[in-house]
Records
---
Amino acid sequence: MSNFYDEGKKIKGQWEYLDTSFIKPTENCDMCDNETDLGPYTCSICLIDTLSGIPNVKYTDECEWIIKRGKKRQFNKTYK
């Protein structure tokens, strides 16, 4: 199990990485790109705008999105 940190403090509880590949580029954003060779690119600002405030989801000091273990199924039903 990985240790995750938020503002230098260890995040308590069991967490796992959150796959953010389902988030689509924002059409009116100059930094997002739908036409890359590797597939659509969503900029970090749009990722933060989309995922901030969602219960059980955090952005870590390591620049990774994580979700509380056991909440992924509920997240997928609601947000995907």
---
Amino acid sequence: MVEIFTNIWKFIGENASEVIAFSALGLAVWQGYIARRHNKLSVRPYLAFSSTFLDEEPHFTVDIKNNGLGTAIITDYKVILDGVTQEDTGKSYVIEACRKLQIPDRFSSAGRYFKLGGSISAGESQNVIKIVLNEGSFLDREIAYKELERIQFKIKYKCLYGVAYESVFHST
């Protein structure tokens, strides 16, 4: 047993520069791995939906905000109404899905169409839908939220490293 330790020390002594070089190489590889893992976290996007109802000017909105540190690259976007995925017919299909909601009285709406490959920067907030009632109209908050329960938005996105994520809006 003592002879084994003696041989190991002898080998290390005779090859000290090689042992130091391989140790430095191992540490450099480990540091690179740790740095890459940190960098992935530092560019991770996090898309969050929120809905707002304003009584003063009767309207409600659904917004999406990137609360993460990196840019979100859109890979898929779906609007689902009453459990049925709406056909993507271009920019107007989000508005058409909103018009199918049972909102009393007349209203105007605006919808956001997310292009595949488009992006949402860190800290950026975008309006997904905005339904504004005409002047003098009244919309009960409970009715608005009940109608919002019928619609769902799903957005798939990835970070700059290609890691995929998904965010879903469903008012419940």
